[in-house]
Amino acid sequence: MSTQQLTFTDEVQHETSSIYNKIKDSIPDIEWPFLAPYIYEINKLKKETNSVILAHNYQTPQIFYGVADIVGDSLALAVEASKVKEDNIIMCGVHFMAETAKIMSPDKHVYLPSLKAGCSLAASITGQDVIELKKKHPGVPVVTYVNTSADVKAETDVCCTSANAVKVVESLGVDKVLFLPDEYLAKYVATKTNVEIISWHGKCEVHEKFSEAEIKELRKNYPGLMIIAHPECPPDVIAASDFAGSTSHMVNYVKDKKPKDVFLVTECSMSDNIEIENPDVNFIKPCNLCPHMKSITLSNILDCLQNKKNEILIDSNTLERARGSIEKMVAIGRQD
Ligand code: 13P
Ligand code: SF4
Question: 164-167 contacts: CB < 8 A, separation 24 or more?
Answer without folding.
Answer: 164/75, 164/329, 164/332, 164/333, 164/334, 164/335, 165/189, 165/231, 166/192, 166/193, 166/335, 167/332, 167/333, 167/334, 167/335
